[in-house]
DNA sequence: TGTAGTCCCTGTAGTAACTACAGGGTCAAG
DNA sequence: CTTGACCCTGTAGTTACTACAGGGACTACA
């Protein structure tokens, strides 16, 4: 089989991942150390690209590096158990939902407060008042 | 007027702020350096407490330290302009709204995917497939 | 053959907003 | 006078990258 290896820069371009991030993922063990050319250049193949895309998609879904390390470890050990993965994913889902509700709380307070702003160049400001006001914990 | 100064630990307890965080806020200039007792203990008064609560409420609303530095700078210079504050707050509000929509996208993908999980101890898993699948960018 | 430009290599530092030590001094109670 | 709970300082660790600096390698072109 023909290898058609690519460099780190090429992998970065193809995947859309920052070139330094690829090296970072290697350093923390999320990406394997690829073989090197005679002059020390990293040589990546389709498996590396596949794995990098896995990581990138996982990150887009908000999984932590630790989560992805666990998931890829299951894959690497050929020990994927849908039940286990689901457990991790559901726990992540809950944390995403918590973040959403935190942010929604912020959003409603912010928009309520900003709505009552005059927008004029005056020293009296509802937001400043609200932040100083002892009534709001 | 009677001063009734309190220590850092007391301020921490009263405000609910972590004791180390108070020192951190001082280091980055968000809190002023308080006077010291003869033996070097920090002595805080109501103004410090008020300011700390301002910062804590601001952080709860998701403002960055830089935002709060700007806001408090306006206050300190007695140059609060509701228009200016509103501009900052609206820009922050937009970023909160963006975060919400990012998280909602994550949430829907995650819950869709997890819903199709068998939850059984089997190697075939929709989430893993989805992360590996080239169809999903 | 020389050289310019673009890659790649390494290690390290910086980002945000804290949080948690270690190693030492202080203060109040018994 | 000792014990325990405080306070002080500086520094390192956390998350997930990102951005250098200083040096080698490779390609194209004159």
Q: How are the SSEs placed, and which strands pair?
A:
The structure is a homodimer of 137-residue chains.
Chain A: H1 8-15, H2 19-27, H3 46-60, H4 65-76, H5 82-115, H6 126-132
Chain A binds a DNA duplex (30 and 30 nucleotides) through helix 2.
Structure, explained:
The structure is a homodimer of 137-residue chains. With 137 residues, chain A is mostly helical. Chain A has a domain of 63 residues: Orthogonal Bundle (Multidrug-efflux Transporter Regulator, Chain: A, Domain 2), CATH 1.10.1660. Helix content of chain A is 62%, strand content 0%. Chain A is built from 6 helices and no strands. Chain A is elongated and about 70 Å long. At the A-B interface, helix 3, helix 4, helix 5 and helix 6 of A face helix 3, helix 4, helix 5 and helix 6 of B. The first copy, chain A, binds a DNA duplex (30 and 30 nucleotides) through helix 2.
In short:
The structure is a homodimer of 137-residue chains. Chain A is mainly α.
Given as residue ranges, the uncertain stretches of chain A (5+ residues, pLDDT < 50) are none
Query: Mind telling me which CATH architecture of the domain at 1-63 in chain A this is?
Result: Orthogonal Bundle
Residue share in β-strands of chain A: under 5%
Q: Count up the helices of chain A.
A: 6
- At the first level of CATH, the class of the domain at 1-63 in chain A is Mainly Alpha
């Amino acid at each position: 089989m023909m290898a058609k290896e690519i460099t780190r820069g090429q992998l970065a371009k193809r995947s859309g991942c920052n070139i330094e991030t690829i090296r970072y993922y290697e350093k923390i063990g999320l990406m394997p150390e690829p073989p090197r050319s005679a002059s020390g250049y990293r040589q990546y193949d389709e498996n590396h690209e596949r794995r990098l895309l896995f990581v990138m998609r996982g990150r887009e879904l908000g999984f932590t590096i630790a989560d992805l390390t666990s998931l890829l470890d299951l894959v690497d050990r050929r020990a994927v158990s849908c039940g286990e993965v689901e457990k991790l994913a559901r726990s992540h889902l809950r944390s995403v939902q918590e973040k959403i509700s935190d942010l929604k709380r912020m959003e409603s307070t912010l928009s309520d407060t900003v709505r009552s702003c005059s927008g004029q160049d005056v020293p009296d400001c509802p937001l400043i008042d609200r932040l100083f006001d002892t009534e709001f914990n």
